[in-house]
Amino acid sequence: MRIYNGFLFPLPNIVLAYWQERTSNCANATIRYTPSLATNRTMSEATTKRVLLVDDEPNIIVALEFLMKQQGYQVDTAYNGQDALQKMEAHIPNVVVLDVMMQGMDGFEVAQQIRRNPALEDTRIVFLTAKGTKEDRMEGYTKGGEVYLTKPFDNDELVSVIGDLMEFG
Amino acid sequence: MSGFLVWAYCLPLPTLAEGGLISSEFIERGLWGISALKPYALFGLEDPNHVSHGAFWSLLINTLVYVGVSLNSKQNALEIRQADLFVDFYKYRDGSNTYEVVKRQAKVSDIQTLLTRFLGQRKSQAILKVYERRYNTDLSKIHIANEDLIKIAETYLAGAIGAASTKILLHSIVKEDPISLEEMFNILEQTQEIMQYSRKLEQKSKELEATTQQLQAVNEQLKELDQLKADFINTVTHELRTPITSIKALAKIVFDNPELPQEEQARYLSIIVNESERISRLVSQVLDLEKIQSLKDQWEMEPMNLKGLVEEAYSNFKPLMDEHQITHKCTIEPGTYQVYGARDRLMQALVNLIGNAIKFCNQENGQVSLLLKIKNQDAIIQVADNGVGISKENQSLIFEKFAQVTDSQMGKPKGSGLGLSITSEIMERHNGTVSLESKLGHGATFSMHIPLLDSSSQNDPD
Question: A59–B250: do the CB atoms touch at under 8 Å?
């Protein structure tokens, strides 16, 4: 079950997913959805979860980074859309936390690019933005976001939402 | 004429009869046996003097007939004139306008052609159908048009082309008395009036069109302004939410994690303080901008010297620049820098520029320089830095509200993005401008141009 424990560094998620699918019969799937195991997950198990934080405000990144690291996730950061797409090429994240209003490529556009990329099929998108109108939310969901949170956010809510996405995809 | 007849009947005729030339029977018994018509005692009035009797009756009849005829004919002429002058035929359609034209005659086909030409095929057919129904006739069987048909044609044509023109047209196909000179003049006058009227109408409609266009333009402008305002509010809200987000999240982190190392706590708290300052800065700048834009805020404009202003601003910033190890200098060319302005506002504009220069100058080897000079009747304050500069495409954007040129690696620079728009608003209020000269990688120079108060008393150092 902990097939990646022997490696010096965690395998990229897509390789793991492929391996898990190949290696066998729904053992991993049950683990994934068994609450008792999920709550008892070890630190090393959690390190496989990777989150990419995208925001053009460094101070918001500081806060997000602290919260995500506290949960034991691997954290990547990016300050704009282009940067975010590059970081995702290097490491495929389980969850991307995306600001919307950014100079150059905005968050919606980044989300579209992610959805067009088959390699990022399993990556879940959380929009975290000051744009809070109904229309903005609708656009967020149509552009491929799973969750739409508005700024200022609640730390606990953000952590639990991302936790759920990590757990159940 | 009638008087003559009466006279002839009363005098020469009985004389002839008495002479035996014609039968004298009517003298005794009256004409056709009517006693009232006895030549020597007309209507029973007998006079022994036949001459005076004849003269009396002939004069009386003559006068009566004359009065009668003249009255009758006068009324006719009046009606004709009235009919000529009417333009709005609906007023006269009720039939009160029944001037007699006894001799009018026209072919039905001619009238049909006329109606078709001026009213169109469909309308003329409709009119003729209405006529047929009303008078219960079949026009295809009648060759000569009667009075009613002519009148109807006249009424409809008058509505379309004016009464005078109608009259001419109908005269051309109706065999009638020729038009009198007076009528001709009336017709000409009326045509002239109609032409003037239509010219006026044309002018009016052109004016209306122009007004409509103006209104549309104004409407567009208002819409644009409204959109700008909405955008502004959106941006302000966004700009406020951003620091609040960091503050809230970090405050919660510090609160939830009392076991955090001291340095880490201090780091988060300092971010909280900075972001709070950012909010209050933003709020006061938005208020400033609002104050500058609204005319309610009466500025205290007065003659003032820019030299003192520049020196004061420079000396205020000196300690800060020394602290950041920025090389700085201030050059004031000789001259009298008397301008008409609001001192506090000009100071605000200048402080914004110097603040930007300090913020954006080269990190390691910063240089900021101030220059005050005169050029073309304008006082010019230049603030130059040696930072990365601003690219051509961003130069036009930079004076927009909240526009900031973002460093792709470092995220946004600190600031609200309102400073330069405040500066340019202030300059606008002083009939001045703020301009930018910059090349990417070679720093930026901002210049405030302020018109000098009295150009004649200035000695241009150039």
Answer: yes
